[in-house]
Amino acid sequence: MARSAGHPEAAPCPISPVVDIVFSRWTTPILWTLNEFGTQRFVELERRLADITPKVLTQRLRQLERDGLVGRVYHAEVPPRVEYEISELGRSLAPVFSTLTVWAQEHLDQVADARGDYDVAGKPKP
């Protein structure tokens, strides 16, 4: 879409690719869980992420493995055992998770209040 002469093209947001990779619906909870609790089997992750379906968990784990954020360790035992662990690259996100945790603790009540105020006042008029 062309912009008018008075509105130069905006620079792309440098964190958009990170948001796309790390902050999808289930990716963040999976990475946070592996970072907090260490290596997990599939069923352990499923239990910790109670609302995720096995299909979605499988898809997200494969994508995270492809992106280099999670490692998959296959143990050739009877029965076979597979474990997932956060990689060093994934672990480099720990400070981000920590910062977001602090932000959530300090500000989510304010967000809830703002939503309540907005809902009571109604949507702004165009």
Describe this structure in words.
This protein has 126 residues and is mainly alpha-helical. It has a domain at 16-92: Orthogonal Bundle (Arc Repressor Mutant, subunit A), CATH 1.10.10. Helix content is 56%, strand content 11%. It contains six helices and three strands. The protein has helices spanning 16-22, 27-37, 42-48, 54-66, 88-91, 94-121; strands at residues 40-41, 70-75, 81-86. It has a three-stranded antiparallel beta sheet. It is globular and about 60 Å long. The model has no long low-confidence stretch (mean pLDDT 89).
Summarize the structure.
With 126 residues, this protein is mainly alpha-helical.
SSE inventory with pairings:
Blueprint: H1 16-22, H2 27-37, E1 40-41, H3 42-48, H4 54-66, E2 70-75, E3 81-86, H5 88-91, H6 94-121
Antiparallel strand pairs: 1-3, 2-3
CATH class of the domain at 16-92: Mainly Alpha
Per CATH, the superfamily of the domain at 16-92 is Winged helix-like DNA-binding domain superfamily/Winged helix DNA-binding domain
Largest sheet, in brief, is: 3 strands, antiparallel
Strand content bin: 5-15%
Structural class: mainly alpha
As a whole number of angstroms, the C-alpha radius of gyration is: 20 Å
List keywords for this structure.
Arc Repressor Mutant, subunit A, three-stranded antiparallel sheet, 6 helices
